[in-house]
Write a structure and sequence with these properties.
The protein is mostly helical. It is built from four helices and no strands. It has helices at residues 11-32, 34-48, 50-58, 67-85.
């Protein structure tokens, strides 16, 4: 009998939901003002793109024996998320 496995959270669903709201919103704003739609799209992508990068790194490791890897991946993911946001 092996130890209990905790399933990885479905973080990709969050990203897909954000994109599903962002893209139609920008298309609607395109009717009003092209610059506004472009600005909202770029701002939304600045918020959406770094999140899956961090999530992939943060949830790469599992289990108590992987504690160092978890901390290391979390730190690298946070720095990468910050740089992608900047």
């Amino acid at each position: 009998m092996s130890g209990a496995e905790i399933a990885r959270p479905p973080v990709h669903r969050i990203t897909l939901a954000q994109l599903a709201l962002l893209i139609p919103s920008c298309l609607l704003l395109l009717v009003i003002d092209k610059v506004l739609a472009y600005s909202v799209l770029r701002g939304g992508l600045v918020a959406v793109v770094p999140q899956p990068y961090f999530a992939v790194l943060a949830f790469r490791w599992r289990g108590a024996r992987s504690a160092r890897g978890i901390v290391r991946s979390g730190n690298i993911g946070e720095v990468g998320k910050f740089l992608l946001s900047a």
